[in-house]
Hints:
Number of helices: 4
CATH architecture of the largest domain: 2-Layer Sandwich
CATH class of the largest domain: Alpha Beta
Amino acid sequence: xxxxxxxxxxxxxxxxxxxxxxxxxxxxxxxxxxxxxxxxxxxxxxxxxxxxxxxxxxxxxxxxxxxxxxxxxxxxxxxxxxxxxxxxxxxxxxxxxxxxxxxxxxxxxxxxxxxxxxxxxxxxxxxxxxxxxxxxxxxxxxxxxxxxxxxxxxxxxxxxxxxxxxxxxxxxxxxxxxxxxxxxxxxxxxxxxxxxxxxxxxxxxxxxxxxxxxxxxxxxxxxxxxxxxxxxxxxxxxxxxxxxxxxxxxxxxxxxxx
Length: 258
């Protein structure tokens, strides 16, 4: 075995230099070769977007990328396909190492029961928002004769009246029954025939009715812009807010004289 002389100071310095150089080489090898190889073992992978995929589809996609998964939670989502991925962590497009685990939230196929809130006597928009906030689907409103305009008077499901406080499946469809603002008040239709159109218009609206179609007819024997006919006939009963159609003598816009 070779021996190194340490009789001279230069020999000692040489030995120290060799030791220091060896240490530096080992240090560089560890931090710049071994450690990067160890920490970068396996390529970086971009996390795929799994939302909406079935479990089988998600599993196949993760297997292809050498990623694992675990179901962390289940939740019911209205109008979402049961047993599909609803959310994930890490998020899509995040960069991770192979072998990492993706945590999935799955759409449950069992709708939870939720309590129907009391929205009676509230406005349609207010009640609609509150019912939707707890997970019900609000259908088109059903209007009934009532003076309480746009006010919720009843709540229905599948055509039958239901009561606030009852429990129903989340995602059930609810129909809100609201007042039309007119009630059952009836009006006897006045006789507008022969009146100037402007007077008939004031009388119609003043009676709680609305003007429907206005038809113009050329009738030289009648005063221009006077009412020739009406529908319904005078004496009929209408509900407040209903319409009356009238026929007027003349033209919708009088032709210019040359």
